[in-house]
Structures are given as C-alpha cells and as structure tokens.
Design a protein that fits this description.
Elements: E1 2-5, H1 16-30, E2 35-38, H2 48-56, E3 59-66, E4 72-80, E5 83-87, H3 89-92, H4 110-113, H5 117-128, E6 133-137, H6 148-153, E7 157-159, H7 167-171, E8 176-178, H8 180-185, E9 190-194, H9 207-211, H10 220-237, H11 249-259, E10 263-265, H12 267-275, H13 277-282, E11 286-294, H14 303-311, E12 318-325, H15 329-334, E13 339-342, H16 343-347, H17 349-354, H18 356-371
Parallel strand pairs: 1-2, 1-11, 5-6, 6-9, 9-10, 11-12, 12-13
Antiparallel strand pairs: 3-4, 4-5, 7-8
Helix pairs in contact: 1-18
Keywords: Kinase, Transferase
GO molecular function, one term: glycerate kinase activity
Pfam families: Gly_kinase
Length: 373
C-alpha cells in the first residue's frame, strides 16, 4: 500500500514534522512493505515555516525582530524562489507574553500593550531579501492591535507618535493615520494572509470578544476598551475592510494585511497548494492525518477536515490520530473520517505526554495491523 501521512502539530508535545515521523516509524514496524509518504501540515499557526521548509526546501533566513512587548526576539522566515513565508507567532505569539498566576493565561494587561511591530519587520526583511510574494501565517498570536504595529514597521505614520506600536492601549488615543508610506514600501509585492479564521475585526464576533480572553483580556471592561481602540483605528484607516472575512485573525493582524492590499487564504489551502497535496492524495491508498486534540474545531477549516475533504472526492479512506478524540464516530464519518485513534485511550495519559514520539509510533504500529493489506 501507499500511505500518505499528513498530520498537523500535536500542540505542546510534537511538531507536525515530528508527528509525521513518529507515525511513519510506527507504521513501518507493522507494514515494512508499505510505501509511506510523510507530508507534515499546518494551517498558518506555529510550525507554518518548518512545515513548508520540509516540503518546499528553500532558504531559512534568521532575523532579530521586536517582540510583542518590545523585547528583541529571534525569528526565521522561509525564502523559496521569489516567495517568502512568515510565521507571525514567532514575532507576536502568545508564547512570548508573560504568564499570570494560573500559569496558562497571559498576565492581565499584557495584550493591551502588545504589538505586531515585529511581524512588520519580518515582512520588510523578506521584501529586502527579494520576495515578491509574502505569505504571512496567522495563528497563535498574543496581540490585539489590529495590525497597527505591522503598519508602523512598514513606515505608516500616526499621531501621536508611537501610538501605532503601543498596542490597543495606545491606539485609543490615535488621532490621525497615513498608510500611504506602507503601501509604497510594498509596491509590487503580493501579500497573503494565511488563516483559518474568518472573523471580522470588530463587534461580538470580532478579534477582541472571540479571542481576547485567551490573551488575558478577561474582563468585560478590558474587552470593551480594546474593541473601542480598534474601532478608533478602523475609523481612521478603512472601516469597510474591518468587516472583511479574516480581518479579525491574529488579533486583527489580518486587518492590517488587508489594508495593505493583501488577500486572505485559508491557511490549510495555502500549505496544501504549496506541497501539491491534492495530487498526493490521489496517488495513495490511505490518508492519515491528526493533531493533538480532535474536537469540533478540528472539523471546521483545520488540517484534519482539510485532508478529509480532499480524500473524499478522491475515494481514498482517511483516518486520524490524536492525543485525545472528543468527537463521536458518527460525526467523524459524516465529516469524511473513517476512524480516529486516541493516544490517551490506547497508551494512557502519562505515557502520551511523557513520551509522545514513542506513544504515537506505538499507536500507528497497532493501527497498521488493521488497515494495511
């Protein structure tokens, strides 16, 4: 048999590359005669650059940029031909914010000051390196500034000075905005916002109210203030663009990219097109995907649902591995997944988290006995 192994990351334990390697290793133990093709996947969040580099090759270029709270942070972007791929979380990710007392949520107030300035620096570095198409993966952000910091790093001007790069707290006092210098800086460059999020910038379904709590904007007052600041920003920039699909992605970073003429693509589609995934699916007998927690979100625009959507029309069965499976068999089959296998159920919680590579390989080894001819 020919097997396509195309998982997303198992958040907190394995990158997509590591997960694909573990599944392939375990499968080959049971079915050494099978041809296993490993193609790690991503939907625009953490791991985006590594996944594309593993499939496309190209050159990884290192840079030091400004982190969400102003500190220098290392970041890497991929240059493949005249296209550059950027992972915004490397410059403004949730993991770069200090944690509060619960050890999970950022310290209160951090997101109110956090900026996407470093993402704009990465875009500028990519253009300076010769990129004419810049794809920015959105996901895992710790910011909520509407992409104002991105604009500032690309020479947009605002009053008072510094308001664009101070997070929503500073945006509340913004009185004027000139995006023209940023547009000129990117003349001739195609921008792509790669994200599975289609929320608008403002309102009940906007960046602040939907994603703010996980970034430390936990009280109604925090969210009201932040959404009000983004409204001020949007009124000065272009209020119509604030309603576009994906404007609310990554705390509104999608909005900043759309203001600069960028287009939104689902993150999964961006990666799938880059690696030629549809052709790969059509050339195998079985498709395997997976992620850390397979739940209802997995079935809506994520890697797992994307693989299942490609496998169905190609008449190829699709199965999934996950750390934990929180969707019933009937719902899985309705969404094109023949079966899902939980690491926690098959090897135990302690083993799954303590030895994730070995655990995932062991699950794949057992499953191969069922599916390999």
């Amino acid at each position: 048999m020919r097997i396509l192994v195309a998982p997303d990351k198992f958040a907190g334990t394995l990158t997509a590359v590591e997960a694909a390697d573990a599944i392939a290793e375990g499968w080959r133990r049971s079915a050494p005669g099978d041809e296993v093709v490993a193609v790690p996947m991503a939907d625009g969040g953490p791991g985006f650059v590594d996944v594309l580099h593993s499939s496309l090759g190209g050159e990884l270029l290192a840079s030091i940029v400004t982190g969400p709270l102003g500190e220098p942070v290392p970041a890497t972007f991929l240059l493949a031909g005249d296209a550059a791929y950027i992972e915004s979380a490397q410059a403004c990710g949730l993991a770069l914010l200090p944690l509060g007392d619960d050890g999970r949520t950022p310290v209160p107030g951090a997101a109110a000051r956090a900026s996407t300035y470093g993402v704009g620096e990465l875009v500028a570095h990519a253009v300076d390196a010769g990129a004419r198409r810049v794809v920015v993966g959105l996901g895992g952000s710790g910011t909520n500034d509407g992409g104002a910091g991105l604009l500032a790093a690309l020479d947009a001007a605002g009053e008072p000075s510094g308001a664009l790069r101070g997070g929503p707290e500073a945006l509340a006092g913004l009185t004027s905005l000139d995006v023209a210098p940023a547009l000129a800086r990117l003349d001739g460059v195609q921008l792509v916002a790669a994200s599975d999020v289609d929320n608008p910038l403002l309102g009940l379904r906007g960046a602040t109210n939907v994603f703010g709590p996980q970034k430390g904007l936990v009280t109604d007052a925090d969210r009201l203030a932040a959404d009000g600041a983004l409204t001020t920003f949007a009124d000065l920039a272009d209020r119509r663009v604030a309603d576009h699909r994906g404007a609310g992605a990554a705390g509104g970073l999608g909005y900043g990219l759309l203001l600069l003429g960028g287009v939104r693509e689902p993150g999964f589609d961006t990666v799938a097109h880059a690696v030629g995934l549809a052709d790969l699916v059509g050339g195998v007998d079985l498709v395997i995907t997976g992620e850390g927690k397979l739940d209802w979100q997995s079935l809506s625009g994520k890697v797992v649902s994307g693989l299942a959507a490609l496998a169905g029309p190609a008449l190829r069965p699709c199965i999934a591995f996950a750390g934990a499976v929180q969707v019933g068999n009937r719902e899985l089959r309705v969404n094109g997944i023949e079966a899902a296998y939980s690491m926690v159920d098959m090897v135990g919680t302690e083993e799954s988290f303590g030895r994730p590579h070995e655990s995932l390989a062991a699950v794949a080894e057992r499953v191969a006995k069922t599916w390999s001819r």
